[in-house]
Design brief:
alpha+beta; Beta-Lactamase; Arc Repressor Mutant, subunit A; 14 helices; 5 strands; about 15% strand
Length: about 260
Protein backbone atom coordinates (compact mmCIF):
# COMPACT_ATOMS: atom_id res chain seq x y z
CA UNK A 1 0.00 0.00 0.00
CA UNK A 2 1.28 3.49 -0.87
CA UNK A 3 2.39 5.76 1.95
CA UNK A 4 0.66 8.66 0.23
CA UNK A 5 -2.71 9.77 1.59
CA UNK A 6 -5.75 8.62 -0.34
CA UNK A 7 -8.63 10.94 -1.16
CA UNK A 8 -10.63 9.53 1.77
CA UNK A 9 -7.69 10.05 4.12
CA UNK A 10 -7.29 13.65 2.97
CA UNK A 11 -10.98 14.08 3.79
CA UNK A 12 -10.41 12.61 7.26
CA UNK A 13 -7.48 14.98 7.77
CA UNK A 14 -9.64 17.93 6.79
CA UNK A 15 -12.34 16.82 9.24
CA UNK A 16 -9.79 16.52 12.06
CA UNK A 17 -8.42 19.99 11.30
CA UNK A 18 -11.91 21.47 11.39
CA UNK A 19 -12.72 19.72 14.68
CA UNK A 20 -9.68 20.95 16.64
CA UNK A 21 -10.77 22.28 20.03
CA UNK A 22 -14.27 20.79 19.76
CA UNK A 23 -15.87 17.68 21.34
CA UNK A 24 -15.85 16.05 17.90
CA UNK A 25 -12.08 16.10 17.52
CA UNK A 26 -11.35 12.81 19.30
CA UNK A 27 -13.60 10.76 17.01
CA UNK A 28 -12.29 12.31 13.81
CA UNK A 29 -8.67 12.10 14.98
CA UNK A 30 -9.14 8.43 15.82
CA UNK A 31 -10.66 7.79 12.38
CA UNK A 32 -7.58 9.34 10.76
CA UNK A 33 -5.34 6.82 12.54
CA UNK A 34 -7.69 3.90 12.01
CA UNK A 35 -7.46 4.31 8.25
CA UNK A 36 -3.95 2.80 8.39
CA UNK A 37 -3.32 1.48 11.91
CA UNK A 38 -5.06 -1.24 13.96
CA UNK A 39 -5.29 -0.81 17.73
CA UNK A 40 -7.24 -1.98 20.77
CA UNK A 41 -6.89 1.18 22.85
CA UNK A 42 -6.74 4.83 21.82
CA UNK A 43 -6.12 7.18 24.74
CA UNK A 44 -5.60 10.94 24.76
CA UNK A 45 -4.15 12.53 27.88
CA UNK A 46 -1.99 15.29 29.32
CA UNK A 47 1.14 15.05 31.41
CA UNK A 48 1.49 18.28 33.41
CA UNK A 49 4.41 19.17 35.73
CA UNK A 50 4.05 17.74 39.21
CA UNK A 51 0.69 16.14 38.44
CA UNK A 52 -0.59 12.66 37.58
CA UNK A 53 -1.82 12.16 34.01
CA UNK A 54 -5.20 13.59 33.13
CA UNK A 55 -7.35 11.59 30.71
CA UNK A 56 -8.89 13.80 28.02
CA UNK A 57 -10.71 11.10 26.06
CA UNK A 58 -10.44 7.39 25.35
CA UNK A 59 -11.61 4.47 23.26
CA UNK A 60 -11.05 0.89 24.43
CA UNK A 61 -12.11 -2.11 22.38
CA UNK A 62 -15.07 -3.59 24.28
CA UNK A 63 -14.21 -6.59 26.41
CA UNK A 64 -10.54 -6.59 25.46
CA UNK A 65 -8.91 -4.90 28.46
CA UNK A 66 -9.00 -5.76 32.15
CA UNK A 67 -11.81 -3.53 33.49
CA UNK A 68 -9.75 -1.89 36.23
CA UNK A 69 -6.59 -1.31 34.15
CA UNK A 70 -7.29 2.29 33.11
CA UNK A 71 -8.29 3.42 36.60
CA UNK A 72 -5.22 1.73 38.07
CA UNK A 73 -3.06 3.57 35.57
CA UNK A 74 -4.57 6.99 36.33
CA UNK A 75 -4.45 6.39 40.10
CA UNK A 76 -0.91 5.09 40.46
CA UNK A 77 0.72 2.82 37.87
CA UNK A 78 1.43 5.73 35.53
CA UNK A 79 4.67 6.16 37.52
CA UNK A 80 5.91 2.98 35.81
CA UNK A 81 4.77 3.99 32.30
CA UNK A 82 7.83 4.50 30.05
CA UNK A 83 6.01 7.20 28.10
CA UNK A 84 5.28 9.12 31.30
CA UNK A 85 8.92 8.75 32.35
CA UNK A 86 10.09 9.90 28.91
CA UNK A 87 7.80 12.92 28.65
CA UNK A 88 10.44 15.59 29.41
CA UNK A 89 13.00 14.06 27.05
CA UNK A 90 10.89 14.23 23.89
CA UNK A 91 11.98 17.69 22.79
CA UNK A 92 9.89 18.80 19.86
CA UNK A 93 7.65 15.77 20.19
CA UNK A 94 7.64 12.57 18.21
CA UNK A 95 6.22 9.13 17.53
CA UNK A 96 7.75 6.44 19.72
CA UNK A 97 7.34 2.72 20.11
CA UNK A 98 7.30 1.30 23.65
CA UNK A 99 10.62 -0.48 23.18
CA UNK A 100 12.27 2.81 22.15
CA UNK A 101 11.47 4.65 25.38
CA UNK A 102 11.37 1.83 27.96
CA UNK A 103 14.21 1.35 30.49
CA UNK A 104 16.64 -1.42 29.60
CA UNK A 105 15.13 -3.98 31.99
CA UNK A 106 11.50 -2.91 31.61
CA UNK A 107 10.38 -6.03 29.76
CA UNK A 108 11.60 -8.27 32.60
CA UNK A 109 10.23 -6.04 35.36
CA UNK A 110 7.46 -7.29 37.60
CA UNK A 111 5.31 -4.31 36.64
CA UNK A 112 5.49 -5.27 32.96
CA UNK A 113 4.89 -8.96 33.63
CA UNK A 114 2.07 -8.55 36.15
CA UNK A 115 0.31 -5.36 35.08
CA UNK A 116 1.09 -4.61 31.43
CA UNK A 117 1.07 -8.17 30.13
CA UNK A 118 -1.66 -8.95 32.64
CA UNK A 119 -3.87 -6.55 30.74
CA UNK A 120 -3.41 -8.59 27.56
CA UNK A 121 -1.42 -5.89 25.75
CA UNK A 122 1.71 -6.68 23.77
CA UNK A 123 2.82 -3.43 22.12
CA UNK A 124 2.25 0.33 22.28
CA UNK A 125 2.97 3.40 20.20
CA UNK A 126 2.75 6.88 21.64
CA UNK A 127 2.78 10.43 20.34
CA UNK A 128 4.31 13.01 22.67
CA UNK A 129 3.66 16.67 21.94
CA UNK A 130 5.07 19.48 24.14
CA UNK A 131 2.57 22.10 25.28
CA UNK A 132 2.92 25.54 26.85
CA UNK A 133 3.77 25.82 30.57
CA UNK A 134 5.74 22.56 30.42
CA UNK A 135 2.84 20.20 29.76
CA UNK A 136 2.97 17.33 27.29
CA UNK A 137 0.07 15.90 25.27
CA UNK A 138 0.16 12.13 24.89
CA UNK A 139 -1.71 9.92 22.44
CA UNK A 140 -1.37 6.21 23.23
CA UNK A 141 -2.31 3.31 20.96
CA UNK A 142 -1.95 -0.26 22.21
CA UNK A 143 -2.22 -3.68 20.62
CA UNK A 144 -3.41 -6.88 22.28
CA UNK A 145 -1.79 -10.29 21.92
CA UNK A 146 -4.11 -11.53 19.16
CA UNK A 147 -3.18 -8.55 16.96
CA UNK A 148 0.55 -8.86 17.48
CA UNK A 149 3.06 -5.97 17.47
CA UNK A 150 2.66 -2.91 15.27
CA UNK A 151 3.78 -3.59 11.71
CA UNK A 152 6.58 -1.79 9.92
CA UNK A 153 4.19 -0.30 7.36
CA UNK A 154 2.06 1.17 10.16
CA UNK A 155 5.08 2.67 11.90
CA UNK A 156 6.41 4.04 8.62
CA UNK A 157 3.07 5.76 7.96
CA UNK A 158 2.92 7.25 11.47
CA UNK A 159 6.46 8.58 11.24
CA UNK A 160 6.01 10.01 7.76
CA UNK A 161 2.98 12.04 8.86
CA UNK A 162 4.16 12.65 12.44
CA UNK A 163 4.52 16.45 11.95
CA UNK A 164 0.85 16.74 10.98
CA UNK A 165 -0.44 14.27 13.58
CA UNK A 166 1.55 15.91 16.37
CA UNK A 167 0.52 19.41 15.34
CA UNK A 168 -3.16 18.43 15.43
CA UNK A 169 -2.69 16.92 18.91
CA UNK A 170 -0.82 20.02 20.10
CA UNK A 171 -3.38 22.45 18.74
CA UNK A 172 -6.31 20.55 20.21
CA UNK A 173 -4.85 19.98 23.69
CA UNK A 174 -3.61 23.57 23.86
CA UNK A 175 -7.18 24.79 23.49
CA UNK A 176 -8.47 22.68 26.38
CA UNK A 177 -8.43 24.00 29.94
CA UNK A 178 -5.56 22.33 31.85
CA UNK A 179 -6.98 20.15 34.64
CA UNK A 180 -5.10 22.02 37.37
CA UNK A 181 -6.84 25.23 36.27
CA UNK A 182 -10.19 23.48 36.35
CA UNK A 183 -9.53 22.40 39.93
CA UNK A 184 -9.86 18.69 39.19
CA UNK A 185 -6.35 17.46 40.02
CA UNK A 186 -5.48 15.30 43.02
CA UNK A 187 -1.78 15.50 43.77
CA UNK A 188 0.03 12.24 44.54
CA UNK A 189 3.47 12.17 46.19
CA UNK A 190 6.41 11.08 44.00
CA UNK A 191 7.16 7.35 43.98
CA UNK A 192 10.45 7.94 45.81
CA UNK A 193 8.62 9.62 48.70
CA UNK A 194 6.01 6.85 48.85
CA UNK A 195 8.75 4.22 49.05
CA UNK A 196 10.73 6.04 51.73
CA UNK A 197 7.67 6.83 53.84
CA UNK A 198 6.38 3.24 53.67
CA UNK A 199 9.78 1.91 54.67
CA UNK A 200 9.83 4.25 57.68
CA UNK A 201 6.20 4.02 58.81
CA UNK A 202 5.41 0.36 58.09
CA UNK A 203 8.69 -1.51 57.74
CA UNK A 204 10.41 0.61 60.42
CA UNK A 205 13.47 1.01 58.23
CA UNK A 206 15.36 4.17 57.38
CA UNK A 207 16.14 4.40 53.69
CA UNK A 208 18.31 7.21 52.41
CA UNK A 209 16.93 9.46 49.68
CA UNK A 210 19.35 7.85 47.21
CA UNK A 211 18.28 4.31 48.18
CA UNK A 212 14.64 5.26 47.69
CA UNK A 213 15.47 6.78 44.30
CA UNK A 214 17.22 3.61 43.21
CA UNK A 215 14.35 1.47 44.50
CA UNK A 216 11.95 3.45 42.32
CA UNK A 217 14.16 3.18 39.24
CA UNK A 218 14.67 -0.57 39.71
CA UNK A 219 10.90 -1.02 40.00
CA UNK A 220 10.45 0.98 36.78
CA UNK A 221 12.77 -1.42 34.95
CA UNK A 222 16.21 0.20 35.11
CA UNK A 223 19.42 -1.81 35.42
CA UNK A 224 22.25 -0.57 37.64
CA UNK A 225 23.87 1.12 34.66
CA UNK A 226 20.67 2.79 33.49
CA UNK A 227 19.78 3.95 37.02
CA UNK A 228 23.29 5.33 37.48
CA UNK A 229 23.02 7.26 34.21
CA UNK A 230 19.62 8.66 35.22
CA UNK A 231 20.96 9.80 38.60
CA UNK A 232 24.28 10.94 37.11
CA UNK A 233 26.36 8.80 39.44
CA UNK A 234 28.91 6.04 38.83
CA UNK A 235 27.59 2.55 38.18
CA UNK A 236 29.68 1.16 41.03
CA UNK A 237 28.17 3.76 43.37
CA UNK A 238 24.70 2.71 42.25
CA UNK A 239 25.57 -0.94 42.94
CA UNK A 240 26.67 -0.06 46.48
CA UNK A 241 23.41 1.79 47.16
CA UNK A 242 21.40 -1.10 45.72
CA UNK A 243 23.24 -3.65 47.88
CA UNK A 244 22.60 -1.50 50.95
CA UNK A 245 18.94 -1.18 49.96
CA UNK A 246 18.49 -4.94 49.58
CA UNK A 247 20.37 -5.60 52.83
CA UNK A 248 18.13 -3.23 54.80
CA UNK A 249 15.00 -4.76 53.27
CA UNK A 250 16.36 -8.31 53.63
CA UNK A 251 15.64 -9.14 49.99
CA UNK A 252 17.70 -10.40 47.06
CA UNK A 253 15.86 -9.56 43.83
CA UNK A 254 13.77 -7.05 41.92
CA UNK A 255 10.83 -9.41 42.36
CA UNK A 256 11.23 -9.25 46.14
CA UNK A 257 11.41 -5.45 45.95
CA UNK A 258 8.22 -5.35 43.90
CA UNK A 259 6.51 -7.60 46.43
CA UNK A 260 7.27 -5.13 49.22
CA UNK A 261 6.03 -2.04 47.40
CA UNK A 262 3.49 -3.21 44.79
CA UNK A 263 0.62 -1.98 46.96
CA UNK A 264 1.92 1.53 46.31
CA UNK A 265 0.97 1.13 42.64
Amino acid sequence: MSDNLSASEVSLLRDAMRAVGTPGFFETYQALFRARVAFSTFLMMRFDPGQPPSLLDNWIEPGRLRPTALNEYLDSTYAFDPFFQYRDRAEGGGVFRLAEVAPDRFFSSEYYLQYYRGSGLCDEVGLLAPLAQGGVAHLSMSRRDAQGPFRRAELRYLRKYAPILIELLTQHCSLLVPPQQAGTVTTRPPLTDLIRNHAKDVLHLALTAREAQIAGLVLQGHSNGSAAKTLEIATETCKVHRRNLYRKLNISSQRDLFGLFKHLL
